[in-house]
Design brief:
Layout: H1 2-19, H2 35-39, E1 41-52, E2 55-60, E3 65-69, E4 74-81, E5 84-94, E6 100-105, E7 111-119, E8 123-130, E9 133-141
Antiparallel strand pairs: 1-2, 1-3, 1-9, 3-4, 4-5, 5-6, 6-7, 7-8, 8-9
């Protein structure tokens, strides 16, 4: 009987630890896949939520752009329109705490930092702020 109560106690403590150790605001609480493995994929925009003060605007993704994060720490951003396609390339990496994805575009040296809100193998939410505007971009795999 004592052995059973010890096992139950250990199970309960493990459950509490696993459900409370999520790194990102929106989840997941736990994943067996490393963070880099979850980022490496082709992502299309599902929606963009823009916030200015107390005003919020939501725009659905139209499938015209996607970003491919590659294992070799490079990325390709492609925007397609009626006039054709435009592709930008560069390098990506995590910051030291793996809370942000930093992207540096080839040629221009422009660097963007996006806070990771959610990182699953098939869904990723990134947030960026410019002045008073915060854009939360929700991606799904292509």
């Amino acid at each position: 009987m004592k052995k059973l109560s010890i096992i139950i106690s250990m199970f309960m403590m493990t459950s509490v630890v696993l459900t409370s150790c999520g790194k990102y605001e929106e989840g997941p609480g736990f994943s067996v896949l490393p963070k880099k493995s979850r980022v490496v994929n082709i992502w299309k925009v599902d929606k963009i939520v823009s916030k200015v003060g107390s005003s919020t605007t939501e725009t659905a993704g139209d499938g015209s752009s996607y970003t491919e994060f590659k294992k070799d720490d490079t990325f390709e951003y492609t925007l397609t329109s009626q006039a054709g396609s435009l592709t930008s390339k560069g390098k990506w990496n995590f910051d030291s705490k793996k809370e942000n994805i930093e992207m540096t575009f080839d040629g221009s040296g422009i660097k963007t930092t996006n806070k990771i809100l959610m990182l699953k193998s098939n869904e990723m939410w990134l947030s960026s702020t410019s002045g008073a505007i915060t854009n939360e971009t929700h991606y799904v795999t292509k």
